[in-house]
């Protein structure tokens, strides 16, 4: 090959583009382990951030996940380099309390359908969803994700062409269950205390604060303070929300709401003796958790008013004194727990109620506690969310795919190369064709990395389609040039090439036109296909095809 | 090639037959995949065959449809059910029964959303067609040639839809993407042939057709072998669906191009007297 060819602008353009593509893809051989999540009880908390790379630990170079895994049973002083900074922590009990994955070898982002994960589309329920509502949903979800420490979770509002807004959540780890229990839950929290009393000759009473309320049973309804209520009615007395649950001739059952999620000022996340409680303990074959929440003075006063009317009694088992009603805690209308109220809290403005629960398995108890804490910390979502679409790929299926994709690509390339060889029977034509197909692959990948595009299955299909079109164009160019060769030379090779290019441009424009609407359907499910096809075709037309033309011109001229 | 005008009738007859079949089929309900019909699908990949009856017994509490697809490297067992059943429950039931669920995928979509996907896909197809026609108009600057060129992909799409429905291949968003790609491939060929026949006046007319045929055979064969590889190795359902639709589409496109489009072009050239 003569070096003059390298000075041609077309060849230079390809070479420069390839350099840019490789820089954008940024392949690295350097290993390392990336932190994907940090448990709240990790010894490294505060001294490590999600996304940090650990390159070195206790005199050992960390290249793979296994290198770091060796330290899972380690106790003592643990020294490590993260993002170039040295840190020392004391590890008292085995377990680093962090989750990590292998550092990606390139800056290419692969979609969850290729690496495994879960993607869920949630539709906010209700007539008019304003952008304020969407912002509120997103910030609530963000708090929940951060509090819970859900690893590698991406979420965003997506809009379809008719203006419908959806919330899309994508997680590399985690499961659909995590989304159902943590993110898709509206999180309406209520603390309720029942008031129960008996009727004597159709008249009963209950006390709230310092006031005694008389209730007259009129059979079809109850009269309280001059108003009549039926079973299921909701009403307010003295600023406290009531509902009439049930009544008979003997007695009545009222439910008061003393606080809701809006009244929570903060949630105790870490146990701090004397300040707040957040604990997990084993009780027989059961794991119990408890944590405190802090509520506003206003709702604490409601608690004082309602409990002031309750009787105290002594529990014969424990010998401790409790009030006659328990406090019931609900999340989205489902009872999560109910607790006895110690009788010394009667009439007190109690601002630190405790939330408890339990599970048979320790991990489940930890998980449930953290989910509840996260939901209470974030508050309720402004509207209910309905799951409308779920895509879930197990990580091992994703890994299998990546390997299979490489092999398939190679076999497809060989198959196409054999067809080309059978047709032209010339290695000097075959080699530039294959070379340019590979260059195009690198350039499309580079362009995808540069625009931060996430490569999913549809994108892979698009890349295949674009390279396929590229091969067709190459065949067309070669044929255009060898056509009318030999004795009847009327057009020069340059003129023929020009004709070939007008065909290529026309064909490229039609494919791009056909791809445009695809970008907007199905909330972007097929967007990847449209984007990579378009990228590939643009790169082909403006970068690789001119250079290929130049090279083929040389090859055929000889 | 005296009979070429008669040959135009063959693709038209096939097109009409396919259109009629498609109209009948859409009245009976088109075969739609989960993303256009709504529902949940769990796909379990395994090396060995998973007994369908045993699986159904384990899941006898649920209204579930089970089928098995055989790939080159193993089996895919597909469980389909309505969105009212929680996929978490199915997965935990299977795991408790001792099934190995290392490689699985779940796809679930509400019927309402999938309905809107379907209408969006139809719109995308119509819009893509209009955009394509405008571009072709720019290329040829001749209404009659543009019409000929646009008819070919239209034939392709209707015929692919009819044949895939006939073969029991379900329509999905991925197959819509493939249909749009067929439009692209088809026009690619048609533009090439038309420009050669109309512009390469340096060589004899018959030779222009002949050389174009060679190019067309090469590009179609190259694309077909690549698609056969993709189809045979069944990498993923999205890619298999796209490969299947493109495979059928390209075969139809080759016939439509050479029986319909080229013969119309010949007719056009004869009338205009292009040398």
Explain what the structure shows.
Chain A is an alpha+beta fold and 558 residues long. Among the domains of chain A are: 186 residues, Multidrug efflux transporter AcrB transmembrane domain (Multidrug efflux transporter AcrB transmembrane fold), CATH 1.20.1640.10; 70 residues, Pdz3 Domain; 89 residues, 2-Layer Sandwich (Alpha-Beta Plaits), CATH 3.30.70. Helix content of chain A is 39%, strand content 29%. Chain A has twelve helices and 28 strands. In chain A, strands 1, 2, 3, 4, 5 and 6 form a six-stranded antiparallel β-sheet that branches. In chain A, β12 and β13 form a beta hairpin. In chain A, α10 runs parallel beside α12. In chain A, 41% of the residues are buried. With 275 residues, chain B is α+β, with helices and mostly antiparallel strands. Chain B folds into two domains: 192 residues, Multidrug efflux transporter AcrB transmembrane domain (Multidrug efflux transporter AcrB transmembrane fold); 71 residues, Alpha-Beta Plaits (2-Layer Sandwich), CATH 3.30.70.260. Chain B contains ten helices and four strands. A four-stranded antiparallel β-sheet of chain B has the order 2-3-1-4. The longest helix of chain B is centred in the last third of the chain and has 36 residues. Chain B is elongated. Chains A and B meet through α5, β27, α8, α10 and α11 of A and β4, α6, α8, α9 and α10 of B. β27 of chain A pairs antiparallel with β4 of chain B, so a sheet runs across the interface.
Protein traits:
heterodimer; A: 558 residues; alpha+beta; Multidrug efflux transporter AcrB transmembrane fold; Pdz3 Domain; Alpha-Beta Plaits; six-stranded antiparallel β-sheet; 12 helices; 28 strands; 39% helix; B: 275 residues; four-stranded antiparallel β-sheet; 10 helices; 4 strands; 10% strand; elongated
């Amino acid at each position: 090959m003569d070096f003059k060819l390298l000075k041609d602008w077309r060849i230079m353009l390809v070479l420069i583009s390839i350099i840019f593509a490789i820089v954008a893809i940024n392949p690295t051989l350097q290993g390392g382990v990336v932190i994907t999540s940090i448990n709240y009880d990790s010894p490294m908390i505060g001294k490590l951030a999600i996304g940090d790379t650990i390159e070195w630990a206790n005199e050992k170079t960390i290249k793979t996940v296994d290198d770091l895994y060796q330290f899972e049973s380690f106790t003592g002083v643990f020294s490590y380099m993260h993002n170039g900074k040295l840190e020392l922590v004391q590890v008292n009990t085995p377990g680093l309390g962090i989750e990590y994955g292998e550092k990606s070898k390139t800056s290419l982002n692969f979609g969850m359908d290729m690496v495994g994960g879960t993607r869920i589309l949630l539709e906010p329920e209700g007539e008019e969803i304003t952008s304020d509502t969407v912002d509120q949903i997103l910030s609530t979800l963000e708090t929940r994700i951060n509090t819970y420490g859900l690893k590698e979770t991406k979420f965003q509002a997506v809009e379809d062409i008719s203006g419908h807004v959806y919330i899309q959540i994508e997680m590399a780890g985690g499961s659909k269950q995590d989304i159902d229990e943590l993110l898709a839950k509206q999180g309406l929290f209520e603390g309720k205390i029942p008031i129960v009393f008996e009727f004597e000759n159709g008249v009963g009473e209950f006390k709230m604060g310092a006031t005694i309320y008389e209730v007259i049973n009129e059979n079809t309804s109850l009269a309280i303070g001059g108003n009549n209520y039926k079973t299921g009615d909701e009403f307010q007395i003295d600023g406290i929300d009531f509902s009439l649950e049930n009544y008979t001739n003997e007695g009545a059952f009222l439910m008061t709401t003393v606080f809701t999620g809006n009244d929570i000022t903060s949630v105790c996340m870490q146990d701090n003796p004397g300040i707040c409680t957040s604990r997990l303990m084993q009780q027989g074959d059961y794991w119990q958790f408890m944590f405190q929440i802090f509520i506003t003075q206003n709702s604490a006063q409601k608690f004082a008013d309602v409990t002031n009317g309750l009787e105290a009694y002594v529990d014969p088992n424990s010998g401790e004194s409790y009030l006659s009603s328990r406090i019931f805690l609900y999340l989205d209308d489902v009872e999560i727990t109910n607790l006895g109220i110690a009788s010394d809290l009667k009439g007190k403005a109690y601002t630190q109620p405790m939330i408890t629960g339990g599970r048979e398995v320790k991990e489940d108890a930890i998980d449930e506690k953290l989910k509840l804490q996260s939901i209470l910390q974030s508050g309720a979502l402004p509207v209910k969310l309905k799951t409308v679409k779920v895509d879930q790929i197990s990580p091992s299926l994703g890994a299998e795919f990546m390997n299979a994709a490489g092999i398939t690509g190679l076999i497809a390339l060989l198959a196409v190369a054999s067809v080309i060889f059978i047709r032209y029977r010339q290695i000097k034509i075959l080699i530039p064709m294959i070379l340019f197909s590979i260059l195009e692959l690198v350039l499309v990948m580079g362009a995808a990395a540069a625009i931060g595009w996430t490569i999913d299955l549809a994108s892979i299909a698009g890349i295949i389609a674009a390279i396929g079109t590229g091969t067709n164009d190459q065949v067309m160019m070669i044929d255009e040039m060898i056509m009318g060769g030999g004795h009847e030379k009327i057009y020069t090779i340059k003129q023929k090439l020009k004709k070939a290019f007008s065909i290529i441009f026309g064909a490229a424009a039609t494919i791009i036109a056909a791809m445009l609407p695809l970008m907007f359907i199905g909330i972007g499910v097929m967007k990847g296909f449209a984007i990579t096809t378009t990228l590939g075709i643009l790169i082909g037309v403006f970068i690789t095809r001119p250079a290929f033309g130049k090279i083929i011109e040389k090859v055929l001229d000889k | 090639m005296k009979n070429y005008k008669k040959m135009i009738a063959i693709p038209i007859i096939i097109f009409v037959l396919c259109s009629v079949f498609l109209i009948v089929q859409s009245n009976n309900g088109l075969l739609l995949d989960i993303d256009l019909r709504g529902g949940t699908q769990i796909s379990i990949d395994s090396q060995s065959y998973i007994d369908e009856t045993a699986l159904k017994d384990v899941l006898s509490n649920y209204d579930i449809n089970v089928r098995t697809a055989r790939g080159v490297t193993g089996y895919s067992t597909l469980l389909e059910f309505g969105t009212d059943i929680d996929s978490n429950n199915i997965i935990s039931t299977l795991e408790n029964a001792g099934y190995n669920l290392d490689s699985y995928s779940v796809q679930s979509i509400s019927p309402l959303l999938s309905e809107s996907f379907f209408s969006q896909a139809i719109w995308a197809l119509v819009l893509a067609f209009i955009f394509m026609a405008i571009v072709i108009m720019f290329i040829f600057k001749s209404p009659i040639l543009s019409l000929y060129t646009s008819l070919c992909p239209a034939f392709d799409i209707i015929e692919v839809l009819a044949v895939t429905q006939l073969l029991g291949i379900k329509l999905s968003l991925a197959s819509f993407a493939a249909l749009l790609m067929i439009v692209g491939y088809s026009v690619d060929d048609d533009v090439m042939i038309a420009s050669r026949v109309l512009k390469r006046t340096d060589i004899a007319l018959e030779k222009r057709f002949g050389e174009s045929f060679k190019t067309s055979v090469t590009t179609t064969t190259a694309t077909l072998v690549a698609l056969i590889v993709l189809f045979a190795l069944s990498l993923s359902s999205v890619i298999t669906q796209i490969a299947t639709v493109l495979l059928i589409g390209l075969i139809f496109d080759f016939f439509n191009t050479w029986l319909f489009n080229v013969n119309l072009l010949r007719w056009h050239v004869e009338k205009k007297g292009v040398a």
